[in-house]
Design brief:
The complex is a heterodimer of chains A (248) and B (324). Chain A is of the alpha/beta class and 248 residues long. Helices cover 33% and strands 26% of the residues of chain A. In chain A, the strands form two sheets. A six-stranded mixed β-sheet of chain A has the order 6-7-8-3-9-10. A four-stranded antiparallel β-sheet of chain A has the order 2-1-4-5, covered by helices on one side. The chains are: A alpha/beta (248), B mainly alpha (324).
Amino acid sequence: MSAIIELKNVSKSFGGITALKKASIKVDVGEVVGLIGDNGAGKSTLIKTLVGVHAPDDGQIIIRGNEVKNWNASKAREAGIETVFQDRALCPQQSIVWNIFMGKELKHRFGFIREKEQVREANKLIREIGFTSKLIDAESPVGNLSGGERQGVAIARAIYNNAELIVLDEPTTALSLIETQKVFDFVDNVKKSGRSVLFIGHNIYHVYDISDRFIVLDRGEVVHQLNKNDIEGPEALMKVMKDAVSKH
Amino acid sequence: MSTKESTFKNLIGKNGRALGSLGYFIILMLVFLIGAPEVMMRPNLHQSVFVMLPVIMFMVIPLVFLVTAGEIDLSFASTFGLSAYIFALLLKAGLDPLLCILIGILSGAVVGILMGCLVVYGRLSSLVASLGALFFIRGFLFVASDSKSISFMEISDHWIYDVLVGKLFGVPMQVYWAALFTIFSYYLYRKHVFGIHIHHVGDNPDSAAQMGINVNWVRISAFMYVGLGAALAGIFSCLINFTWWPTQGFGYLLLALAAVFIGGTPTWGGVGTIIGAVFGVGVIAYMEVGVVAMGMSGVWRQFFNGLIIILAILGHRFHGGRVR
């Protein structure tokens, strides 16, 4: 499998505090990678560097085999990396279709919207990623959706924006079991479509269930990279993480 | 649930606020019809309503955009007077009336942009900033005009008078212009990227910014549209009355705002309805004459205006509060 993105020996510090120490990770096509680590382990610095919010102080960023210099957010989007942040950046009073096309509407000349096309495309997208309820269509307001379904709308929007790698930042936080399962179904469908997902979570059980591979961060360093086969279950993964922390 | 039934429910659900406003308008008309059947059946009563109703429409429709964007503007009632003043001065100076109108409209848009910049870049509350602008501009008009009105009877001989405020099939021309403006605004609001971005900015400005929408520009352009509408209203009012006077438009301030809210656009931003606002204007315009038509003294007018506003927003509550 080939890597969509590879970070090699990437370091980042903020005013003397090292947030990332020579971190090297990669995400392959069509895999779900779980990123775990305690608070302050450097998860968000790693993610923000990956999506171009932070420029790395040192190290290489390699996109599909080619190194990219002067890494930034717009280069990350060009490379097909889309982030779904915790707050999901949705407008709850607007319809699903307006949210999916927010800021990137399909327009006629003079700026009028190609409404039918947008609705058709949005309906296709939400069916593709696994919306099954007949009560929900592209024109339903996002405010009527559950937490998991809202996550789905944000994921659908990322796909519309030509995402090859979708970064999900704590997507199951504060969701019930059923809602979490919905998010997992969405992620499965994203994977089936050949895209990749980087899944960041606090809940080891959630990360274990959904991921093919795990990256364990501690104090800015990548301390483990494990395949699901290498590990027996979420408890074992938890132990790996705890052992890393207790080494300090 | 059958498809037909669900389509019907969908229609109600999507247009609940507009239908609610239509409901209030119908109820109000029924009350007046029962209370004063002979007066309400007289065509000249409706004609007199339809002379000034379009003027209110020009102010209210752009306000729906601004309120949807999560802002408010009070200064439009003075922009009305300022643009009309500029129009009147230029007319008196002998400029071509068409040019006077265009410059007048432009001046309203410019005031709107300045108002928007003040709120966006000065990080001021739009309520307070526009309250200041309301008095400031009106004060300027009193000083500049020395509190004297300007009349221009001669405009009635010009072709532009017939085109803008003459009569076609017995209906004042301004009704057609206001209808055109409203239809255009409806498409701008629902089907154009400008209107859609206004919804997003009013709903969740942070999300809108994250998705690449220029939030500041959207806000400023909404203020610009309000200024433009106020200028149109002011110029039409001048043409209808052949006169500019220093307090012109001031009386519309609260009525126009009331029409927006009776029309079903809530205060919190992100949602609104143009069609509802049309009925909101209808309620306000008929309120003015209906109470008197029913034989009550004019002093009751404000009492009923207030009652209608409270009942209307209570009613709109049933279409649901804010979803988050």
